[in-house]
Structures are given as C-alpha cells and as structure tokens.
Design brief:
Elements (H helix, E strand, L loop, with lengths): L1 H10 L6 H13 L2 E2 L9 E3 L2 E8 L7 E5 L6 E7 L5 E7 L10 E5 L8
Length: 116
C-alpha cells in the first residue's frame, strides 16, 4: 500500500494494484482463502461461503461497485481505499443485496450493511 501511495505522490498517477490489494486485505483481515488468479466464480472462500471481493479505488469518482449477478458467491466483500490510502471494508450476505434483472448490480458503499 505504501508503494502505491508513494508512486501516486511522486507521479500523480496510480498503479494498477488496488484489486489485488483488496483481495489481500480480505485474506489477511477475514481469513478468506483466495482462489487462483482468474478462477471462474468467486474470488475466494470463507468456510463454506464463496466470497466475491470488489475494491473501491482512491481515484474513483463515486463510491460504488458493479457486481456480476450471475457470479457464484454467497458473500460480497467491498474494500474501500480512500484518497488518503486508508482501507476499510464491509461484508454482506448476498441475500441482503437488492434483486435485479440486469446482468450487473450497482451497489453503493453507503447502502452496504454489515452482515450479522
């Protein structure tokens, strides 16, 4: 994370690493066992649950993610990296997400409620 921040300070540009940082954050913080890169379905497993991990990057103009509805996941972990390179996260059960007929569900950070 410090390398991404330093690179941004020095160049004004961002490295293409935030998705990987989000996945590593999920593995370290939640104990998610990550799937192999580019595996179909979800990004990892937490017990019997398949977890999809989405990252809100520090340069994103809005705090939302797009989740493929056809994905094979039972939990969604959204990792947010803000402009100060601080990391926070929210995990929700898929059953708590709004239903849609569209192929992608757009979900805003402020609409995520922590799974109980």
């Amino acid at each position: 994370m410090s390398l991404a921040e330093s690179y941004h300070v020095e160049t004004g540009r961002h490295l293409n690493v935030y998705g990987d940082i989000g996945e590593l954050f999920g593995a370290i913080t939640y104990g998610i066992k990550l799937n192999k890169n580019y595996a179909q379905g979800a990004d990892g497993r937490l017990g019997n649950d398949h977890v999809e991990i989405k990252t809100i990057t520090p340069f994103k103009s809005n705090d939302e993610v797009a989740v493929k509805v056809s994905g094979n996941f039972s939990k969604l972990l959204v990792v947010k990296i803000n402009a100060d390179f601080e990391v926070s996260s929210r995990m929700v059960d898929r059953s708590k997400l709004p239903k849609t007929a569209k192929p992608f569900l757009r979900i805003r950070w402020e609409d995520l409620h922590v799974a109980k």
